[in-house]
Design a protein that fits this description.
Layout: E1 2-15, H1 22-49, H2 58-76, H3 99-108, H4 112-115, H5 119-145, E2 167-170, E3 175-177, E4 181-183, E5 190-192, E6 202-211, E7 214-228
Antiparallel strand pairs: 1-7, 2-6, 3-4, 4-5, 6-7
Helix pairs in contact: 1-2, 1-5, 2-3
Length: 242
Amino acid sequence: MTNSMPIYRTHQVWVKPGHRLFAYLDQACQNAKNLYNTINFYIRQVFTSFGQKESLQPLQQQVMNTLEEHIDAMNERRSEKNRSHPFKLPSKEKPFVSYNFLDALFKVMDQTDYRALPAQSSQGIMKIAFQNWLSFFASMKDYRKHPEKYSGKPHIPGYTRSKVKEVVFSNQDYVIKEQKYLKLPKTKLQLNIGKLCCTDGQLEQVRVVPSHGQFVVEMIFVYPLEKKETAKENALAIDLGA
């Protein structure tokens, strides 16, 4: 009797300056950086708007106006099952916008940085940004209980200062051609990945990781693994009570 369970393996292809795909990967990772900072910008402006006594700063007011301008359209696009729970504008009691709220806002306003990448890639970057904020809130909660554990008060998540950031493409966004070439979204250029396509593995995800002025294209393959179990008729039994 055998139980089949998958295993994952990562294969890498390095893309250096001068490679035909270098400019494309560079732009994709720049788009990822821009989107991360845009997401962080919106979260920060809303969150800090309710933590001060003075009037809103121009950027804070700009973001709050954007939310008010699009909230009705966001609710109109809600699915039938979610219509009974409409989006609400942030408030002093709830100053933190949710992932679903910001994702719906960017879709409705056709936000440039959000649309620059495939939808699942953009949503993956958004999830990372929100996870950083949730980690910040967890640190603040712990800081209030155990300030002696910290050298100072935790800071809200900052902006990415590097020019590029990792981007991930799902298996809905790329195509394998001629069992040899990887075609990424929004480009006609292809990456020769050789015999990797001839294995019994299934390409599940592609990550583009900036590294020292180059890009590492990481391809995550899932392979079936057969785990053999010892047949009962061949098992050895010992009676310890004999």
